[in-house]
């Protein structure tokens, strides 16, 4: 028998909860008075959804595996014709359903409330299930589908979150229906689901576990991350995309102690207080067909200035999407990513030896590309033993890299850009060549902006311009 330990303590009480509790008491008293007088009829269905904004608590859905007890939040300005992200969050053991006396015990859980406090409007639902096995996983899926069918949910942006026992449940739910969820936040829990289904759908996963979690230990988190990484690799997902889709965070004792936390398992709830983590989850999306454009990416409009270039680099195997349906055109391009892109364009030739950089890792997804680029003189380091693996590539750097890749051809010098004096001396000839050959164009006011980081969209355009005109 799998025996669970109590593991959650509500971190704070949301001010709206105080108002809801008082309001519920008043309404209950009014209903009982009216009912006694024969003035109120009892609703026949517990499944009738309510669509006014705010918190709606202690609801019951009669499902295939029995009753599902849940509470939910709708934005104050909720509109039935809108399209809102949906977050389905499952709490730990001591907020599960143990009968009427436990009803609403998840209302103060920050894993429920934190999402409602973000700037973006969204629908948030949290259930009190009865176990952490397959039955509860099926109920979590059923509850998700109920909201999709009855509320204004953006089907491309459905997210799962689970803490402790809720994490055991949701890791199974996400692996059962990876087509349903765009991303999953797995907090202070062991992974009870499978891995390959998530890889096939490229679900984004963030795993958070204290180094010395008293209940699970941190090795379970490491094992889950490794197994997910292996599954994504076996599914043919590009290494740099895996790096974007999978995150593992294991804070040490000092991190928690600095917050006044000394019980590391219950302290794992602090992950929900980190807006960077929540927004990372919310940045993921998948396409159910409702938002995908003619480019094949939901975030690249068919008429975007970079759309044709994105299609070119994708069709020629030079750049992949950041997921099956997104390209992330505004994300920055790193030096290791650019090295990998040019390495692919060169045919991924065999390499031997090792590079002399101190910030590269042997066997990493970019290792062969960086070695090739440095040996061919296409990309050099900073001269201090650093390659700048994860540094964003600047506009003058990419012009120089493409110029070297083209064989460092000569070009007439000229005052082509109004900020020509800001271009580094090492990049001057390259920028002249790039402008003369239509590889780069000026920004507003005919400025080159040499030190600005190049976005993925800009790199795609420069590559397309160069490779289609050479």
UniProtKB/TrEMBL annotation:
Keyword annotations of the record: Repeat, Signal
Protein name as catalogued: S-layer homology domain-containing protein
Gene3D superfamilies xrefs: alpha/beta hydrolase (3.40.50.1820)
SLH domain ranges (all copies): 293-352, 353-416, 417-470
Keyword Transcription recorded: no
Top-level taxon in the UniProt lineage: Bacteria
Organism classification: Bacteria, Bacillati, Bacillota, Clostridia, Eubacteriales
Signal peptide segment: 1-36
SUPFAM superfamilies: alpha/beta-Hydrolases
Residue ranges that the Swiss-Prot or TrEMBL entry lists as coiled coil: none
Natural source organism: Pseudoflavonifractor intestinihominis
Keyword Signal (UniProt): yes
């Amino acid at each position: 028998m799998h025996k669970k330990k109590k593991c959650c303590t509500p971190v704070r009480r949301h001010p709206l909860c105080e108002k809801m509790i008082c309001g519920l008491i008043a309404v209950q008293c009014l209903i009982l008075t009216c009912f006694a007088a024969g003035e109120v009829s009892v609703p026949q269905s517990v499944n009738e959804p309510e669509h006014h904004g705010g918190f709606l608590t202690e609801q019951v859905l009669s499902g295939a595996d029995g009753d599902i007890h849940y509470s939910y939040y709708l934005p104050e300005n909720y509109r039935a014709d809108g399209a809102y992200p949906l977050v389905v969050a499952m709490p730990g053991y001591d907020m599960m359903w143990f009968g009427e006396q436990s009803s609403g015990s998840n209302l103060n859980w920050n894993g429920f409330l934190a999402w409602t406090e973000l700037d973006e409007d969204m629908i948030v639902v949290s259930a009190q299930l009865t176990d952490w096995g397959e039955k509860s996983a099926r109920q979590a899926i059923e509850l998700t589908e109920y909201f999709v069918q009855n509320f204004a949910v953006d089907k491309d942006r459905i997210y799962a979150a689970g803490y402790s026992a809720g994490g055991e449940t949701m890791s199974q739910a996400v692996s059962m229906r990876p087509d349903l969820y765009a991303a999953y936040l797995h907090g202070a829990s062991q992974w009870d689901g499978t891995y390959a289904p998530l890889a096939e759908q490229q679900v984004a996963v963030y795993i958070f576990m204290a180094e010395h979690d008293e209940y699970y230990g941190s090795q379970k988190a490491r094992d889950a991350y490794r197994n997910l990484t292996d599954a994504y690799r076996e599914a043919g997902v590009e290494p740099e995309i895996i790096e974007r889709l999978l995150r593992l965070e294991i804070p040490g004792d000092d991190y928690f102690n600095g917050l006044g936390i000394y019980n590391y398992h219950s302290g794992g709830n602090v992950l929900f207080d980190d807006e960077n983590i929540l927004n990372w989850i919310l940045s993921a999306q998948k396409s159910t067909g409702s938002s995908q454009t003619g480019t094949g990416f939901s975030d690249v409009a068919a008429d975007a200035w970079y759309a044709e270039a994105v299609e070119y680099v994708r069709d020629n195997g030079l750049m992949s999407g950041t997921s099956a349906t997104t390209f992330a055109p505004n994300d920055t391009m790193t030096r290791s990513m650019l090295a990998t892109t040019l390495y692919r364009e060169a045919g991924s030739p065999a390499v031997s030896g090792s590079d002399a950089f101190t910030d590269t890792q042997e066997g990493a997804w970019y290792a062969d590309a960086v070695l090739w680029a440095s040996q061919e003189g296409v990309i050099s380091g900073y001269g201090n033993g650093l390659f700048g693996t994860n540094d964003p590539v600047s506009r003058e750097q990419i012009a120089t890299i493409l110029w070297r890749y083209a064989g460092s051809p000569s070009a007439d010098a000229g005052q082509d850009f109004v900020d020509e004096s800001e271009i580094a001396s090492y990049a001057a000839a390259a920028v002249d060549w790039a402008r003369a050959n239509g590889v780069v164009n000026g920004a507003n006011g005919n400025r080159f902006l040499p030190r600005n980081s190049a976005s993925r969209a800009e790199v795609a355009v420069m590559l397309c311009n160069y490779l289609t005109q050479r």
